[in-house]
Design goal:
This protein has seven helices and 51 strands. The strands form 16 sheets. Strands 5, 6, 9, 10 and 11 form a five-stranded mixed sheet that branches. It has a four-stranded mixed sheet with strand order 1-2-3-4, with helices on one face.
């Protein structure tokens, strides 16, 4: 056959017969030896981890015969699936947090990428980045980027509290990908973003000119900084004072004097058209009396801006300031209120209160005394101050009023003692007065049972009951003394009353039978039913139960092509002639053969089919049969053509049986290894062993292949590139052992 499209020799076809969640699960299964059949000897399996980021995901193993070693006989063949990329997550942080992510400790098999520098063009714009993936950049600290250069802007902030300006937005990033765990890839982006700062100065301007005339708009706004920081500015605002109007200020309390000019509110008049204020004559009613008596009044200052910039205030009388300065209360109840403005007000003998109370605990006399000379209130209260109880039950109540002794005879009666004779049942209750209570009690203090006759005797403490207290019950206690079971499971119980009891089925008169297993059988004939047979004591015939018990009856290796043939003991696990096509394969493509000579030398019949598992290695493993050179096969002759012509059935006889062949143009050159495929009946190239450093198989990540790698790869070698994948099938691989295995179709 011609070489493949990719330039290398055709590879070896294989079938994945099973899958495992982990290498540990596979080793545990293989160490079970012949008990584990889902992946048979020489078959292939794949490690299909639930977490597709696991480094073991996609590893291929072939099951070997030596299941006692550390790997359970598993031989590693390669990895056809690499870890898949995790879902990227982006997190916005500060620059300091991203720097922490770039330096914190992570496992060796994690991958972390972050920027270490950048390049700019002639205008200072960022044109490219350096990362830890570049040569010589690993281990360098993370760098931050000026936002204005990266995005061709001139964004700048304001200034800090110390007056320092920060003229740049800075940012950086860090990417961390885990090969396992939560299958996530975190992309951290950090910013330092300043905010605009505005400063303001204000001053007050007048809305009137020098002549006192009103001007419509005197507001002023002026920027005072040098405009070198676009995100910082300072402004000066001229804010006009309010327009002129009458104002009331300084509301206060005063004591008027003869020098004060005070106007009554009625002395103020306002022109309704012009708003001009006119003041009349000064003074208010009662002013002279207030000055003479030194009373307090409430006033305020009134400013009226009628054609004057700085008016003189007029003091206006609001009213008398009258408050309570003091309140006094005499012992006789006289109340006096002292006001700050008006004369004092006196309330004589209007308030009375209790000055003292007394209560005699012996006589009950209660006295109340008052402050204003009112006669005291006297009364006698009555309550029970003590209680006593005589031995005969007489109760005495002693009162406070007149020391009255109230007596109640024979009101309370109580038990002084109780006596019970536990042998005779005689019961006596004694009281504090009167005759005692006597009763004859009766109870059962013992029960006797005659086990032989079942007779029950009850003994009473009252000897007058029965004979000396003994009463024989008419009923008898029936006891089971023995039981027997017949061969068909009928149970009969014997009692002390010489009566037999045969157990019946519930709800009927039919005898109850105990069902027991007499024996368990399993046919051993190659054509027999392999279900377990159970013989019960209640059944005449054997009963088949459960599914057939199947096991490997025999295994042989067909010497003509070294195929492993397996004979299953259970007929239902073997194919029949009706199940097979003309090539001896069933509907699932499984090969079956008949007329096989077993390991005992006896040939099975044509109706008994063995399963063909294909070729296997012999117990010696891979051994070299002989060496060939170009002179052995002839000048110009191709080694594969020579082997397929000279040994069309492989090496089948003598000491070279099943071994491989080496070939070198001369004895000093590297050896090429060739083996025979006993399924396809063709020779194929295995590989080369030499000290040249060349590789027959090479595994490289996408984008990491170098010219040196290509030079070291054998001309007939195979290159695998690891590329990101998604959408992998994670369903369980069907068991290759099953007759219904159809995954290869």
């Amino acid at each position: 056959m011609a070489d493949s499209f990719y330039g290398g020799h055709n590879g070896v076809s294989f079938v994945l017969s099973g899958r495992f969640d982990s290498i540990k699960d596979m080793v545990q299964a293989f160490k079970r030896g012949d008990e584990f059949t889902d992946v048979w000897y020489n078959e292939y399996c794949i490690i299909d981890t639930p977490n597709k980021n696991s480094v073991d995901n996609g590893k291929i193993y072939q099951r070997g015969l030596d299941y006692t070693n550390d790997m359970g006989g598993a031989n590693y063949k390669g990895n056809i699936v690499g870890p898949m990329s995790g879902t990227p997550f982006m997190q916005m942080n500060t620059i300091q947090e991203v720097k922490n992510q770039s330096t914190k400790a992570i496992p060796d098999d994690w991958e972390r990428v972050y920027p270490t520098g950048y390049s700019t063009d002639a205008q200072g714009h960022v044109t490219g980045y350096k990362t830890t993936l570049d040569d010589g950049e690993a281990g360098k600290p993370i760098v931050t980027f000026p936002f204005s250069k990266a995005h061709d802007t001139s964004l700048v902030p304001g200034k800090d509290e110390n007056g320092n300006y920060t003229d740049e937005i800075s940012w950086t990033w860090c990417n961390i990908r885990t090969p396992d765990g939560n299958k996530s890839s975190w992309y951290y982006v950090g910013f330092t973003i300043p905010y605009p700062v505005f400063e303001y100065d204000t001053h007050v301007v007048s809305q009137y000119n020098a002549s006192g005339n009103y001007q419509a708009d005197t507001t002023s706004v002026e920027r005072t900084d040098d405009k070198s920081h676009p995100f910082f500015s300072s402004w000066d605002f001229g804010i006009p004072k309010g327009i002129k109007g009458d104002a009331i200020r300084n509301l206060r309390v005063i004591t008027p004097t003869s020098s004060d000019v005070i106007y009554a509110a009625s002395a103020i008049s306002v022109d309704g058209t012009s708003g001009k204020v006119t003041l009349g004559a000064a003074g208010y009613d009662g002013q002279a009396d207030d000055i003479k008596a030194g009373r307090q009044i409430l006033v305020f200052d009134m400013y009226y801006y009628d054609n004057q910039i700085n008016p003189k205030p007029a003091m206006v009388y609001v009213g008398d300031f009258n408050k309570i300065d003091e309140i006094t209360l005499a012992d006789d109840g006289t109340l006096t209120v002292d006001f700050s403005h008006n004369d004092n007000t006196v309330f004589s003998r209007k308030i009375r209160w209790i000055t003292s109370t007394t209560l005699s605990p012996d006589t009950g006399v209660f006295t109340v005394n008052y402050n204003n000379g009112t006669p005291a209130f006297v009364t006698t209260l009555d309550w029970i101050k003590s209680i006593s109880l005589d031995d005969d039950g007489t109760i005495h109540y002693y009162h406070t009023k007149n020391n009255v002794d109230e007596e109640h005879n024979n009101v309370i009666k109580w038990v002084t003692s109780v006596d019970l004779n536990t042998s005779t049942g005689a019961f006596v209750m004694n009281f504090n007065y009167g005759d005692p209570l006597k009763r004859q009690l009766d109870w059962v203090d013992d029960v006797y049972i005659d086990e032989e006759t079942g007779e029950i005797t009850v003994h009473h403490v009252n000897s007058s009951v029965g004979k000396d207290g003994n009463v024989v019950l008419p009923a008898k206690l029936k006891l089971i003394t023995s039981a027997d079971v017949t061969t068909d499971g009928v149970i009969t119980m014997h009692t002390n009353t010489n009566t037999d009891i045969t157990l019946k089925q519930q709800g009927s008169d039919n005898d109850f039978h105990v069902k027991t297993v007499e024996k368990i059988l399993l046919n051993t004939g190659i054509l027999s039913d392999k279900r377990l047979q159970v013989k019960y004591n209640t059944e005449r015939d054997n009963i088949f139960i459960g599914d057939p018990i199947n096991y490997v009856q025999d295994m042989v290796v067909r010497q003509s092509d070294f195929h492993l043939l397996v004979l299953f003991n259970d007929p239902t696990h073997r194919a029949t002639a009706a199940d097979l096509d003309k090539n001896g394969k069933d509907k699932n493509g499984v090969q079956w053969v008949a007329n096989v000579v077993g390991s005992d030398g006896v040939e099975t019949s044509t109706s008994v089919y063995w399963r063909d598992y294909g070729t296997i290695k012999d117990q010696n493993g891979v051994l070299v049969g002989f060496n060939l050179t170009q002179s052995d096969i002839g000048e110009g002759e191709d080694i594969l053509s020579y082997l397929n012509t000279t040994y069309p059935n492989g090496l089948t006889g003598g000491a070279t049986s099943q071994k491989i062949v080496t070939f070198a143009p001369t004895e000093s050159e590297s050896k090429e290894f060739y083996a025979f495929d006993y399924n396809k009946y063709a020779w194929y190239y295995l590989g080369t062993i030499s000290d040249t450093g060349s590789r027959d198989v090479m595994l490289r990540k996408q984008g990491e292949l170098s010219d040196t790698d290509l030079r070291n790869l054998n001309t007939k070698g195979l290159l695998f590139k690891i590329v990101p994948t998604s959408g992998l099938k994670t369903d369980a691989i069907p068991a290759f052992w099953s007759k219904n295995y159809t995954a290869w179709k």
